[in-house]
Design a protein that fits this description.
Alpha-Beta Plaits; Rossmann fold; 262 residues; binds ribulose-5-phosphate; eight-stranded mixed sheet
């Protein structure tokens, strides 16, 4: 079955499969959102079903919660479990310090709350997400719908004083309507192109009334697992300063490759 996967899906799958090796019996796990995180949820579901491992998942979106229930991962809320052992999530960009841009899937707020409430965060990605400096991917910023155009204008004015290459912003749309997050908010995508000082940008953005949170995840990620289409993975651990290369054994199981949507 894996032979039918495209190289990019195989890369996402092997990164996800390697990441669930970090899961231990009894852990409380933050479940990320997106196509790479969906592979991780499926792998975790298989561990629950086949190996009987007991975990409690806290999903970062309704999409992920639906998938988790579908594949058999027990779901709770962050308020119930309070703190997490591990979060595994995808990313839109990661830099050499494992700082991230996230929110391409519109779930950045819950993703940031969950990752921050975790002892450890592992990012799973393919090599296309790797950059020297963050910013080629438009930075998602979650804003309150009330007065969003004023918030947008304030953000653009602030960006003029910051060390970034672009200052244009766009309201994210879905079916010609403003995209709504799980909290009912809007997303502004900031086309900054180059963010040499992400700490400064993050601080300034979060001071603007109307901004709920931005998609810069700074000093949150501990490990990035980079999958490749040939089934190999690179595991970079920022705390240990280690980089390891491994080949992942892929054993096809019909259950894992159930045609479930993300
Ligand atoms: C969702 C996210 C995702 O992790 C990010 O967009 C990567 O998604 P994918 O794995 O589909 O490329 O931040 O808000």
């Amino acid at each position: 079955m894996t032979a039918e996967l495209s190289p990019i899906d195989k890369a996402k799958f092997v990164a996800a499969k390697r990441a669930v090796d970090y899961v231990e019996d009894g852990m409380r796990i933050g479940l990320g959102t997106g196509s790479t995180a969906a592979w991780m949820v499926r792998c975790l579901g298989e561990m629950v079903r086949e190996e009987g491992i007991r975990v409690t998942g806290v999903a970062t979106s309704t999409r992920t919660a639906d998938l988790a229930r579908q594949v058999g991962v027990p779901i709770s809320t962050l308020d119930e479990v309070k703190w997490l052992d591990l979060t595994i999530d995808g990313a839109d960009e990661y830099d050499p310090h494992l700082n991230l841009i996230k929110g391409g899937g519109g779930a950045l707020l819950q993703e940031k709350i969950v990752a921050t409430a975790s002892d450890q965060m592992i990012v799973i990605a393919d090599a296309t997400k790797q950059v020297e400096t963050l910013g080629a991917f438009p930075l998602p910023v979650e804003v309150i719908p009330f007065g969003w155009q004023t918030t947008k204008a304030l953000i653009e004015e602030m960006l003029g004083n910051l060390d970034v290459l672009g200052t244009t912003t766009s309201l994210r749309l879905a079916n010609d309507q403003p995209f709504r997050t799980d909290e009912g908010n809007f997303i502004l995508d900031l086309h900054l192109r180059h963010i040499p000082n992400p700490q400064q940008v993050s601080l300034v953005l979060n001071q603007i009334p109307g901004v709920v949170e931005n998609g810069l995840f700074l000093d949150i990620c501990d490990i990035v697992i980079i999958g490749a289409g040939d089934g190999s993975v690179e595991v970079r651990d920022i705390n240990n300063g280690t980089v390891e290369h491994e080949q992942i054994d892929i054993i096809d199981t019909d259950n894992l490759f159930l045609d479930v949507s993300d």
